[in-house]
């Protein structure tokens, strides 16, 4: 049973009480944690009223799967991070954000304790410790002050093992973007704007540092991806004065402090995927797989770095049910053994 694709666990829970109890036994969950992961998946969510709908695309199975309604409080308004089978949602309460952790395969959620400095978060990301199966959340900035006098709030890190926040006085330079960050080799890398560049947060030392690397020429928009074997990938759209655009992939060479191009989207595929030079897109991934989402036309691509192959896929069940509504996409690793409440 443990070797079945994770999507089958949802179906098995509805067979009978005995099977549902087996799936929640400590021994079974421990066995799951020792097996290889299912592989890269792409999760999209959509909120209708107070209800979160979701669907998952499994790259190993080349198939979409509708998931049960995500269990979160009604006030949760944004999906902001994902790691190790868990999703992180935020809810704006007054002038500060509250965070919630959810495992959609277990249909469980919990609220994260309040930070020491309550704020409307400008940056949030999370990562998983694969050995202890515990998770951490890194929070920085104050979004409500981006347009005015920016207050230098300290960076705070939540550890699920201690169920508490630690405060670090280090403050990043520039405006951070949660969707443009990646955890790699004990450091949380993030692209910044104003000024444009790359910064990294050393989790063990609690310190933000500027990475002295020049960004590729004519870079219009970019995202970071944690690649295989600890490498950091930059995925970006390049072009001169919004013409002759292309999508390229670079790997960071820490010794030379330079970006090395390792992939490029074929021009015909790029023009068919993005209909307009001004159209926005999303990019996320992990390891050898990078997902691309065109937000306006809801078209998806995946690039396999190892095989050097491009795949396109559609047929998302959320689009057929609610056409025209905005969808949020994120990289997702389905896991039944990751618990939101940890000891």
TrEMBL record:
UniProt xrefs under SUPFAM superfamilies: Kelch motif (SSF117281)
Organism: Ceratopteris richardii (Triangle waterfern)
Pfam family, one: Beta-prop_KIB1-4
KIB1-4 beta-propeller domain residues: 57-304
Protein's name according to its UniProt entry: KIB1-4 beta-propeller domain-containing protein
């Amino acid at each position: 049973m443990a070797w079945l694709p994770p999507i089958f666990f949802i179906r098995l829970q509805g067979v009978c009480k005995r099977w549902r109890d087996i799936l929640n036994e400590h021994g079974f969950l421990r066995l799951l944690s020792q097996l290889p992961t299912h592989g890269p998946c792409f999760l999209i969510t959509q909120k209708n009223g107070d209800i979160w709908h979701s669907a998952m695309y499994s790259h190993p199975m080349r198939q979409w799967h509708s998931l049960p309604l995500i269990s979160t409080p009604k006030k949760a308004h944004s999906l902001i991070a994902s790691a190790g089978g868990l999703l992180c949602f935020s809810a704006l309460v007054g002038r500060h954000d509250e965070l919630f952790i959810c495992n959609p395969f277990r249909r469980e959620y919990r609220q994260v304790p309040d930070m020491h400095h309550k704020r409307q978060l400008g940056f949030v990301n999370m990562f998983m410790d694969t050995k202890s199966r515990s998770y951490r959340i890194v929070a920085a900035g104050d979004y409500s002050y981006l347009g005015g006098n920016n207050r230098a709030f300290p960076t705070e890190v939540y550890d699920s093992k201690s169920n508490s926040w630690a405060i670090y006085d280090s403050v990043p330079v520039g405006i951070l973007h949660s969707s443009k960050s990646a955890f790699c080799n004990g450091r949380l890398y993030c692209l910044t704007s104003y000024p444009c560049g790359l910064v990294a947060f050393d989790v063990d030392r609690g310190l933000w540092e500027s990475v002295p690397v020049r960004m590729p020429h004519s870079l219009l928009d970019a995202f970071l991806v944690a690649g295989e074997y600890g490498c950091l990938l930059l995925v970006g759209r390049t072009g001169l004065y919004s013409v002759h655009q292309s999508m390229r992939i670079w790997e960071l060479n820490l010794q030379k402090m330079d970006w090395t191009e390792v992939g490029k989207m074929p021009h015909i595929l790029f023009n068919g995927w993005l209909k307009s030079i001004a159209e926005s897109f999303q990019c996320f991934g992990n390891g050898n797989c990078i997902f691309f989402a065109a937000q306006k036309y809801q078209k998806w691509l995946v690039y396999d770095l190892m095989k050097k192959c491009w795949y396109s896929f559609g047929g998302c069940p959320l689009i057929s049910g609610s056409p025209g509504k905005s969808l949020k996409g994120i990289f997702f690793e389905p896991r039944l053994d990751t618990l939101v409440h940890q000891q």
